[in-house]
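Quick one:
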Amino acid sequence: MKKVLLAGAATLALTMGAAVAHAQDVTTGYVGVNYSDLDGATLIDVQGTVSFDVSENWELQADGQIGSLNPDGAGSSETIWGPTGHLFWDKDNFKAGVFVGYQDLGDTLSSGTTIFGYGVEGRWAASDAVSIGALAGWGTINLDGAPDMDLTAYKADISIFSSDNLRWDASVTRTSLDWGPFSGDSTIWGVGAEWQLSDRPISFTFGYSSASTDLSGASNATTWSLGVRHTIGGSLKDRDRTSSPFLGLPFAFGGIDGIFGALGSSLQDLVDCFDEDQSCPSNTAINAWEDGFDGDFNEEDLFCFLGSCND
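Output:
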């Protein structure tokens, strides 16, 4: 795991260094290390972002992540990684644009799990101390040997600056997942903060989120994280107001906990279907969904990861 993280840090550092060397106007960015507890799993990852002007009012932002996801009690960890790109229009106090991203989750949910996503996003500096953002995203989870899962997410967030180098965040995300005729939803409430030293480009981050699903009797999944970053381009407010204001995958979709919460809800929809007291989709819809599976898919791995192993 140490080799993976060191390689990730080196790759992100080289990528950001190359961008700084070749772009005329690199404005802001960071590279950092994070530790997260995902309510039953731990994640140690390296994240980085850099942005630069491509014309008078257009900017590019590139994000990257690589890390090690270790489910509690599991004998081995999964390497996760992915890039996200943003193109946005920046004028006065408004930013609006599009994003596209890819996330490889290794064998987290059976053999070979990847996410592809895209969407639209915007941010408004409502005052000197307040920024408000919104996002709509669509994506696909691909499991080797199984039908694709369709993701939809809507997110709103607010950032409040106590000073140029102290930011408080709050957000709400609604993530929906459709797996053939079965569907589920997850609502993720999040809070966080970032503080940067006044005399050097080092900042510290904290985040907490709670994901609830529409499962009857299910408890909320909580996630907390701590991180340290090396920043580029001035204060935290500079980074928010000039460039690098957006999130990459999977955070745009409510994070891993939000996605898995929606997936768990979808699986419960599936289980309820086979309870004689519950209604099912049409046989035609179920048959079409079942035809998407092949012999390489191990459904037991998927249910075990989500805490529903058969005894």
